[in-house]
UniProtKB/TrEMBL annotation, chains A, B:
The entry's keywords: Aminotransferase, DNA-binding, Pyridoxal phosphate, Transcription, Transcription regulation, Transferase
PROSITE patterns: HTH_GNTR
The organism's taxonomic lineage, starting at the top: Bacteria, Bacillati, Bacillota, Bacilli, Bacillales
Domain HTH gntR-type stretches: 22-90
Record flagged with keyword Cytoplasm: no
Name this polypeptide is given: PLP-dependent aminotransferase family protein
Cofactor(s), names only, from the UniProt record: pyridoxal 5'-phosphate
Natural source organism: Bacillus salipaludis
Gene Ontology molecular function, alphabetical: DNA binding; DNA-binding transcription factor activity; pyridoxal phosphate binding; transaminase activity
Family matches, as SMART domains: HTH_GNTR
Family: In the C-terminal section; belongs to the class-I pyridoxal-phosphate-dependent aminotransferase family.
InterPro entries: Aminotransferase_I/II_large, HTH_trans_reg/aminotransferase, PyrdxlP-dep_Trfase, PyrdxlP-dep_Trfase_major, PyrdxlP-dep_Trfase_small, Tscrpt_reg_HTH_GntR, WH-like_DNA-bd_sf, WH_DNA-bd_sf
One of the Pfam families matching this protein, by short name: GntR
Amino acid sequence: MPVNSFEHYPMSWKPDSKALKRPLYKSLASLLEQDIVSGFLAPGTKLPPQRELADFLDINFTTITRAYKICEVKGLIYAVTGSGTFVAPNAARSITISRDKTANLIEFGLVSSFEQTNAIVKDTIQKVVDKRYLEQLLNYNDPTGIPYQKSAALNWMESFGIHTDPEHIAIVSGAQNALAITLAALFEPGNRIATDLYTYSNFIELAKIFHIQLVPIKGDQFGMLPDELEKQCSQTNIHGIFLMPSCSNPTTVMISDIRKQELAAVIRKHRLILIEDDMHAFLTAGMIPDYQQPMFNLLPQQSVYICGTSKSICSGLRVAYMVYGDALREKILRAIFNINVKTSSLDAEVITELILSGKAHEIVSQKKQLAQTANDIYSEYFPLKTTVGHPLSFYRWLPIQGHNDAFQLEMHLKGQGIRVFHSDRFLSGQTTPEKYLRIALSSTNSLDELKTGLKILTQYLN
Amino acid sequence: MPVNSFEHYPMSWKPDSKALKRPLYKSLASLLEQDIVSGFLAPGTKLPPQRELADFLDINFTTITRAYKICEVKGLIYAVTGSGTFVAPNAARSITISRDKTANLIEFGLVSSFEQTNAIVKDTIQKVVDKRYLEQLLNYNDPTGIPYQKSAALNWMESFGIHTDPEHIAIVSGAQNALAITLAALFEPGNRIATDLYTYSNFIELAKIFHIQLVPIKGDQFGMLPDELEKQCSQTNIHGIFLMPSCSNPTTVMISDIRKQELAAVIRKHRLILIEDDMHAFLTAGMIPDYQQPMFNLLPQQSVYICGTSKSICSGLRVAYMVYGDALREKILRAIFNINVKTSSLDAEVITELILSGKAHEIVSQKKQLAQTANDIYSEYFPLKTTVGHPLSFYRWLPIQGHNDAFQLEMHLKGQGIRVFHSDRFLSGQTTPEKYLRIALSSTNSLDELKTGLKILTQYLN
DNA sequence: CAATTTGTGGCTACACATTTA
DNA sequence: TTAAATGTGTAGCCACAAATT
């Protein structure tokens, strides 16, 4: 029997108890899902507490717990002990970022990599084709990469501070693919991974696919806060942590060397698996005075270091390097064989040749130059108030005011001819009061187009 | 309080109740896992019934259910209602098949694809490099394939009976990758997929990675038995079915056209998602008199059709085509973007050029010729007693007697210089009394080596 | 700092379905 | 055919932990 009449305490959600079928918890979960996906329950809405809803429906409150759990794992809602359960910011839509050529828009959304440099790659492909061993690249051999390709990879990563042997490196099909492999290999459904409050939206989606919960941790201008991480680790059972130390996506924050060591101490203490996505090492190592080494070096036995070549060398050739501790090796190899079989040796060979011939460094220095120019242009339109973030980042993180509806803002800007992403897309958990736009500087067809787009943006935002 | 003393009914497994910590079910599961992985509990061992073990440990029997469930999802054990719980045949080892070059062995294990034909591919790569639009293949554009590449794909699959539009096809990085994407996109942990008793071992491993349970269904010489499928579907909640109609791996069984229709009726009735791995269509369509069309055509809205080009065209270029119904499209695209971002347009372009230039058909006819010769050689050593199975299969399924320890047999044959796989590797669930070897005919360096290997094998088995 | 609110995790009870004897 | 054995699935009970007031 319900105890209260609820007339004085209106609940934000009153599911029709007649619509409930057995099993109750599944039925309730699907009612909730419907109301969220249909938009009836807006993002941020506080759902009734478990006990209250249970009372209303006259069932046990743990049955509500179960129903809520189903929706939480699907990323539709999130729960905060003590304060309640809320509809997630990105509940009703997919935040996957991919190339979308439908309209003639100025691309500030997807972060490309100044594709102007691809002409250099073209010549190198010809050199690879001329090699007498080309045929050897077309079979099933060496699923994790041919030994000399791995040597070239080590050569490439040496300047970032990575040192290992060919047994602990694998060539995979891009950094995103490396992340998928890592989650498949080392985590189980229901595991938790700590991330920054704002993080790479495709990692959020990947976590959903693998049914891994993300635990957002607060940070400051030097990266994630060790105390906050410590707090969460001691509170709940956390299995891993995802970091992008060289230039966090989307915030452009670089983790300082001291902070790396502090974080490493917490990670070591709680035996987390560190997933270090160091896609931007090429922009940071040797450039930023504070840069010492990747976190992998501090925690080699419990880390996966991922070095993608899409941003630094060429985006269309899907090649990334994974470096891992011995304890993780077997599981990772198994996941690679089952998800990829292998990565095309032809693609890997082109990247290898670019590295060994020195062309890769040439490409990098061109890209740095382009990044410098693009950032200079950006600061003409949006002066950088502080020195926060990476000075050469391929994207910027612009604080905005008064545009709380992420979807609507993105739509309006599309109407203005600009594709850009609102910060809500990058939220790993609950919402925050501050709002931003992530503005890719590396994806327009020309620097003129970049200027045009930024001009439209300044006008729109003022 | 325990009710019985158990002295008269010895249990196969008596965990130390003092070793149990809280939570009980996790602790118990890990004790069980240890004893299985260490080999203390051999494959096939019957575990104590849930109630009996509960009585012994003096806890509730559903706590045992939970512990068993954890191990079942990990593939360590399997449960049969009414008869009990058993240690799985492949519990203690990984059955992932991958290239393994460690020793100088004759390769009868991994199924390659007569790599002699790769010389033709070499010339085509040069043609691709000469194209003026090569640079356009090096960016993030067209993540599911460039429109004309998709047209070529449709062109290629037309002879297999596939007709669709470019919106319902995607280019991915090989058939195994397509399977990973399909499982990630369309299934949830705990879902069940029906498979043949013997099935592709990397699919079994993939199911483990995604925590999907396989439900083995009996079959005969024409493929899976519809009645058995119907029975299982009405008994438990099954979400999908995995079939290789053109030439099942490892049994070489081809599903007859009548059987396809009967199976389709059951699949439709129970709304299963059909995963049709039609890697061998090129060996079957137009070759086998009975061949009419893929099952995709019978169930276009609830099927994923996978057409790999590794076996038919070139194994090192990681390219497969996925064809799917509109209802599945969005989820599949999301999984592709998150697991691959895209497949190398360079690789896809080479395959496209091979198809459009007619070279692909040339390669196929060479491979068919090689397959014919290899099968002829095989039948000199192991006369085919019946007409069961595909006549041109790249591998054969040899019944053997008296070698029940799969691992030991594989080891002994390695000692003889041969790498080959025992049927236990391909078991999707419980064990069977019949034993086989899967013998790859397409992976030796020469036909002479094939003969040598087969000779050693006949001698060993007699 | 204590009381209250709210969510988490684990064990138990029980109805039910299938298989086997 | 019926009874016993055995596994499956759902809901309830309860101790506890964290956050709020």
